[in-house]
Write a structure and sequence with these properties.
By secondary structure, this protein is α+β, with helices and mostly antiparallel strands. The chain has helices at 59-71, 168-185, 225-244, 290-299, 304-315, 319-326, 329-342, 345-363, 374-385, 391-404, 408-415, 423-436, 438-445, 451-462, 469-479, and strands spanning 9-20, 75-76, 79-80, 83-86, 96-99, 106-115, 119-132, 136-141, 144-148, 155-161, 197-207, 217-222, 252-257, 262-268, 278-279, 286-287. α3 links the parallel β12 (217-222) and β13. α1 (59-71) crosses α4, α2 packs antiparallel against α3 (225-244) and α5 crosses α6. The strands form 4 sheets. A 9-stranded mixed beta sheet has the order 2-6-7-10-1-11-12-13-14. The protein binds zinc ion and manganese (II) ion (MN).
Amino acid sequence: MIINKYPGYQACIGMEIHVQLKTESKIFCSCSNKFGDEPNQNICPICAGHPGSLPSLNKEVVDFAIMAGIATNSKISQTTTFARKHYSYPDLPKNFQITQDNLPICHDGYLIIDLPDNQTKKIRLIRIHMEEDAGKNLHATENESWVDLNRAGTPLLEIVTHPDISNSQETKAYLTQLKRIVEYLGISDANMEEGSFRGDVNISVKKKTDEKLGIKVELKNINSFKYMGQAIDYEIERQIALLESGQKIKQETRSWDSKLHKTIFMRSKGEAQDYRYFIEPDLPILQINEEWINRIKKEIPELAHEKLIRFQQEYNIANYEADILVSDINLANFFEETTKFCKNPKLACNWILRDVLGFLKEKKLDLKSSKITPNLLAELLIELDKETINSKVAQEIFLEMAEYGKSPIHIIKEKDLSQIGSIDDLEKIALEVINTNQEQVKEYLSGKDRLFGFFVGQIMKATNGKANPKILQDLLKKHLK
Ligand code: ZN
Ligand code: MN
């Protein structure tokens, strides 16, 4: 980690995350809030910013904001207001954005992030506020641009931390945790590549002995966890190098160039405009009472970090295994469903982490679009548990099941894959193999132990892989004397 090269310095990183909410309709009108439609299909005079049109607040957005507040240990404001933030840009038809200024809906929360070696750290949240997104400019040719207002008026939560984060690793831990929270709450798809989870970073460095924070640089428009980490590492080193050579840090906005592998200057903060915030006169002051908050509290599902602890206790699986399972709520649910049917959590966990994830990765599929279901996997694992099949055959059946959605029991019958577990049957085959390979028997008996595997292989070949491996080994040990 970069900062270790300069032990006298400390980086202070704050994050502003914009989370796009997956409500039915937009925040101030009843237009559909759907991604991927034809340009300008989902617009009306309100979100297109026609003069005289009046916004009215979507209650679902407030519900989602309260949910996010509760899940991040934030205080929910009893009184919250909207404000206009003025700037002009082609994708912002009103020339102002409706957001929240000094009375945000949530404030003073925190998250406890997990770090290596069972360390944790508290990251304080300054605020969470509601706001509308702008539209999108589409640059067709060098001289021609189009504006798509489908995204205008899409609800966002902006989640702002104190500069409590110290390095790229903590940034990643914070983002991972926040992303899981909004996914588990079901309030956002939180897809960084599609722009429903966007992060800006403020970074400053200072000598550890300094009380005051250094001058901060903003990193904008970084759309992956990986680039975010690289940009932060680079920026910390750039700033420390400047200070070490006696130069000053300039307050500016920079972006990450993934080809040049460095942050590049975008604009100076000296040029930043005054947003002339004032209270939004077309929306009433919003009062949120205890009753409303209590109703939302009851709707909050089990969150990822709670599931992580429960999985380890209830199913006796390792922390790193549970962590992979809960990293995706669909995978966590898939595991619990499978376990409910096959009653062997350890086996289910092993098969999901190795075979299911391996298959999905190879086929570039996600769980939902694959043909693997908890019922099918459980059916296979029950047969494996009962020793109807051995694990090598189970893997073959799994691949066919995963590819075509076929029932494992059906495949076993169809291909006659049941394991040969009868000692009498296997003993005949074993003796035959021993008799026809006398050369190898001699070598084995003179101390070439690895030849044991040769005999196992021969019997497996003779049984098309269906021999019960344990019985087979016992038989070989008995006769190879
Ligand atoms: Zn609209
Ligand atoms: Mn914002």
